[in-house]
């Protein structure tokens, strides 16, 4: 997505104003341009080393010149600040920043664009000496926010656009091409500032590969990142999923955030669940779906941390049931968000021989020492993270997952939790690939160093890819490549790598992509007279309780922001309706795979009600077997659209029924094949 954010201001005060606001940004987004329209003049900001940019901005203010500054706060990349100084009274200004980002895929194949709008104060652990800009931002109730938001999106895909969904009200999708390869959509009304704005784009033929080719930046040095052509290939093959064995080895560690902020609601809707409750529901589903023969343990943390067991225990019906009871009793009552200490304790604990360790983290991500946490996780492999609630820190949630070769999911108030949770578990259950080699042939005298090293390798799939020459002068593919390189180099810089700082600066300044060491600065040199009067600083407020995107100044302002996500590619599939939540399969299945055969029909429609219907079972059929057969039949007949939500539970149930046959063979000393049942 190629995004333009326009920030409009009007100074209604009696003297000049310096407006300073703080806003969230996806840490993987490449911010590559910043400009201002002041008094009919368009001023392009220049990317400079951060200290130099700050000095230039300060000198301009002291000299009575209007100036503007955009900088990344800290090293995490998910919080930016923008300052607009010496805006004269009665005048207006418009700032535009541009960034490009990749669109992640949802479990149902939708390409997800999110405009971050929620920025909560970060918790700073005891003894941490860093600064956190989010602590000083003023907060006001939602009704007193002096700004609004609007968003319009232009969508393009050579394979056609099917539909667009959102967590906010949208205008009808308007196709601008007869073959549905381009379309436009907008927000129907200004959304509340208690949630990030999300667009889910479904494409007609999601599994067709595509490629974009860009020529280099005119004037850039040949052989450099920006001087050479760049190509981005999108591959979304439709592959049959491997059948996961139900005796998979593994050690599964769950780390649950119980800090005070987890007591907050998921969003502002009436009766919205608390974040801790949504995290617990996700944890229960994962516990129910673990494979037989594995080991597990559960940690929780706040200002201190606790664990269910001194070390990981074997997964049985008894240990699962005991753990489920304890999970239901957990509350958000452990104070702060000290996540580093439990991580260190987990990694110090002895591993189970022959059982690769997989870590699942549930948090709202409000911490200040993000880089320390990522560095700790980076030393190990297998971390899957869940950001709970609106405004969860993308830098932390994504950072720890990427550092350990896992995946990150975000669960908000209106999301379906089940497919996201089980998608992560299925990834963790995939067998490890070892002894991987990669080779290629090149013409004599040519080298192609591989940066970075591959983390995932899949089987070869031949096919044709249509190539599109990208005419965009903004060079989004080059910017994404530069951002990827910057993230790698900044990680090396944090570990003390020699030369990393120099390479970070060179890459940022040459590509125009901002980083922790650079900032955009612009000065209005066209105004004939300096701006007179004492300069008053105005910090733009956010919503009290942790929401908002600051975009205004003065007492009663009309300020807004427009977003324009551009081209992206993603999958297409219908979103399943209904639920398999706590009252259905996720709370009735046994650890062994079977379903309990006790109780009477409850009259409900869910899986839990069906598996309890024991009247009338076939004659002499054990209640547990009957309940399990009923549950499997119900899943395949009434919940087929939610297959990815019950797949692991159903596989355990079928495996349990197979074990009944194996037990009969053992008892009778024979080896009857299941085919004799002619099912």
UniProtKB/TrEMBL annotation:
Quote the biased-composition stretches of kind Gly residues, using this chain's numbering. 563-573, 580-601
Domain VIT: residue ranges: 1-101
InterPro entries in the cross-refs = VIT (IPR013694), VWF_A (IPR002035), vWFA_dom_sf (IPR036465)
Q: Where is the VWFA domain?
A: 251-429
Q: Which domain of life is it from?
A: Eukaryota
**UniProt-listed Pfam families:** VIT, VWA_3
Span list, region Disordered: 560-601
Q: In its UniProt entry, what is this protein called? A: von Willebrand factor A domain containing 5A
Give the originating organism. Gopherus agassizii
């Amino acid at each position: 997505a190629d995004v333009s954010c326009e920030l409009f201001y009007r100074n209604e005060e009696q003297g000049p104003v310096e407006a300073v606001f703080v806003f969230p940004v996806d840490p993987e987004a490449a911010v590559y341009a910043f400009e201002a329209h002041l008094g009919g003049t368009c001023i392009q900001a220049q990317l400079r080393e951060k200290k130099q940019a700050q000095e230039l901005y300060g000198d301009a203010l002291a000299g009575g010149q209007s100036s503007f500054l955009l900088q990344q706060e800290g090293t995490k990349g998910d919080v930016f600040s923008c300052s607009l100084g010496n805006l004269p009274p009665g005048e207006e200004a418009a700032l535009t920043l541009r960034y490009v980002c990749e669109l992640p895929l949802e479990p149902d194949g939708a390409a997800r664009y999110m405009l971050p709008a929620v920025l909560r104060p970060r918790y700073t652990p005891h003894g941490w000496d860093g600064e956190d800009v989010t602590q000083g931002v003023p907060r006001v109730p939602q009704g007193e926010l002096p700004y609004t938001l609007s968003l319009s999106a232009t969508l393009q895909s050579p394979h056609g656009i099917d539909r667009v969904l959102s967590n906010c009200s949208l205008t009808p999708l308007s196709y601008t091409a007869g073959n549905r390869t381009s379309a436009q959509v907008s927000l129907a009304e200004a959304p509340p500032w208690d949630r990030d704005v999300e667009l889910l784009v479904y494409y007609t033929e999601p599994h067709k590969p595509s490629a974009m080719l860009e020529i280099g930046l005119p004037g850039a040095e040949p052989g450099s990142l920006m001087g050479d052509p760049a190509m981005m290939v999108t591959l979304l093959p439709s592959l049959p999923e491997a059948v996961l064995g139900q005796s998979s080895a593994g050690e599964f560690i769950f780390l649950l955030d119980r800090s005070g902020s987890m007591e907050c609601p998921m969003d502002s809707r009436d009766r919205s669940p608390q974040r801790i409750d949504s995290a617990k529901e996700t944890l229960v589903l994962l516990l129910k779906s673990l494979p037989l023969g594995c080991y597990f343990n559960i940690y929780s943390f706040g200002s201190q941390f606790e664990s269910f067991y001194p070390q990981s225990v074997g997964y049985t019906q008894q240990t699962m049931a005991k753990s489920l009871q304890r999970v239901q009793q957990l509350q958000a009552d452990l104070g702060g968000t000290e996540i580093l200490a439990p991580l260190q304790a987990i990694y110090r604990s002895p591993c189970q021989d022959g059982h690769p360790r997989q870590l699942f983290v549930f948090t709202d991500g409000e911490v200040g020492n993000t880089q320390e946490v990522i560095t700790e996780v980076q030393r190990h492999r297998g971390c899957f993270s869940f950001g709970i609630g609106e405004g969860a820190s993308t830098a932390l949630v994504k950072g720890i997952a990427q550092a350990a070769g896992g995946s990150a999911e975000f669960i908000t108030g209106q999301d379906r939790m089940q497919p996201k949770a089980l998608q992560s578990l299925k990834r963790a259950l995939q067998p490890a690939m070892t002894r991987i080699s990669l080779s290629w042939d090149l013409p004599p005298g040519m080298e192609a160093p591989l940066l970075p090293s591959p983390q995932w390798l899949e089987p070869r799939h031949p096919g044709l890819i249509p190539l599109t020459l990208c005419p965009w002068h903004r060079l989004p593919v080059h910017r994404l490549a530069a951002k990827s390189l910057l993230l790698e180099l900044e990680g090396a810089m944090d570990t003390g790598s020699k030369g990393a700082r120099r390479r970070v600066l060179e890459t940022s300044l040459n590509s125009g992509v901002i980083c922790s060491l650079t900032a955009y600065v612009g000065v209005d040199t066209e105004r004939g007279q300096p701006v007179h009067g004492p300069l008053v600083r105005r910090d733009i407020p956010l919503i009290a309780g942790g929401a908002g995107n600051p975009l205004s100044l003065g007492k009663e302002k009309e300020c807004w922001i427009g977003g324009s996500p551009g081209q992206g590619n993603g999958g297409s599939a219908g979103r399943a309706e209904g639920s398999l939540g706590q009252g259905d399969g996720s709370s009735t299945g046994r650890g062994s795979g079977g379903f309990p055969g006790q109780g009477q029909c409850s009259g409900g429609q869910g899986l839990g009600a069906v598996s309890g219907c024991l009247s009338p079972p076939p004659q002499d059929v054990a209640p547990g077997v009957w309940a399990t057969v009923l549950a499997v039949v119900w899943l395949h007949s009434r919940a087929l659209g939610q297959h990815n939500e019950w797949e692991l539970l159903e596989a355990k149930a079928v495996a349990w029924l197979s074990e009944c046959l194996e037990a009969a063979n053992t008892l009778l000393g024979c080896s009857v094949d299941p085919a004799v049942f002619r099912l």
